[in-house]
């Protein structure tokens, strides 16, 4: 009998250990936070190409489901409207985990949130940092306007480089000097270099740069004199040689151009058909004295009333009585595109598309778009191709041809068509 009892004692002890183990496992599972057992997914925006399928995690018809769904749809619409063409943005619609009022975070949850707070944000990288990689849409998403604008940029740069290789081959071997970069403005925060071409949207581009730099909240808040006569924006030639070369090699370089005849007429209308305390006495008086026979004493005194054919005579005269001006100088002289390899070439004729495409490429704030307002003489119509033809109709065929020859490199380099059929 005692022998049988001794044999049963180890079996009972083994059964007790199994029962205690099972009870402990059940207790551990009941106390474990279910959110820590489920796989976690980073919150935020997901890049997607396929059709969007809404999540239905909350019971349909519940009040919480309706409120959350409406808010998510508003956010999705807002982000999708600002996304570059061809890029579909999907916002995670899973409802955020909520803590009961007064509940304390477990030690593991506290550690996780502390780690998340300490992790560096991706947005802290410079927008065009060579150390970072710009994350754009996948190749399959490059469709519609986005793909078209990228192809346009490639073609513009190809044409520009071919023209430089054919006609300005020696330029690429020259060293960059401060004179070559004197028209380039610097925006360090987004690492942008902008070459100013007057009468090609330069006033509004400077406004955009000032907003990007954090110098103004809105482009509409910046006055004309602040844009052109203030010192808020730095020019590239104010840096030392190392600073110039560093920015040229690491920043995004861009310029905007305009049809040369149209740009010339726009400059003439702005500077000579409106009161101007600089261009009338400096340029107007010299032009009238040289090219107008029997000019009145009043005209010679004020320099007002210059006619377009007289202005073109001054422009084409190799012995012109007063020097050139940036408002009608060649783009090839202002921005040295055969010496400086520009990353982006925009055109005034497609300003809205080109400008907003560029802003998306440099990761500008989503609420910043290129302003549409006319900077000066807002009551007057913008200079168009039709208005340009009216002014050039005042010239002889020879004057038109010589003016075309004067701007030939700009026509060739930026792929503009001949504005008149009789030009060769």
Automatic annotation (TrEMBL):
Pfam families on file: Sulfotransfer_2
Record's bilayer topology term: Single-pass type II membrane protein
Species in which this protein is naturally found: Moschus moschiferus
EC number: 2.8.2.-
UniProt superkingdom: Eukaryota
Protein name per Swiss-Prot or TrEMBL: Carbohydrate sulfotransferase
Keyword annotations from UniProtKB, A to Z: Carbohydrate metabolism, Glycoprotein, Golgi apparatus, Membrane, Signal, Signal-anchor, Transferase, Transmembrane, Transmembrane helix
Family: Belongs to the sulfotransferase 2 family.
MF-aspect GO terms: dermatan 4-sulfotransferase activity
GN (gene name): CHST8
GO terms under biological process: carbohydrate biosynthetic process; hormone biosynthetic process; proteoglycan biosynthetic process; sulfur compound metabolic process
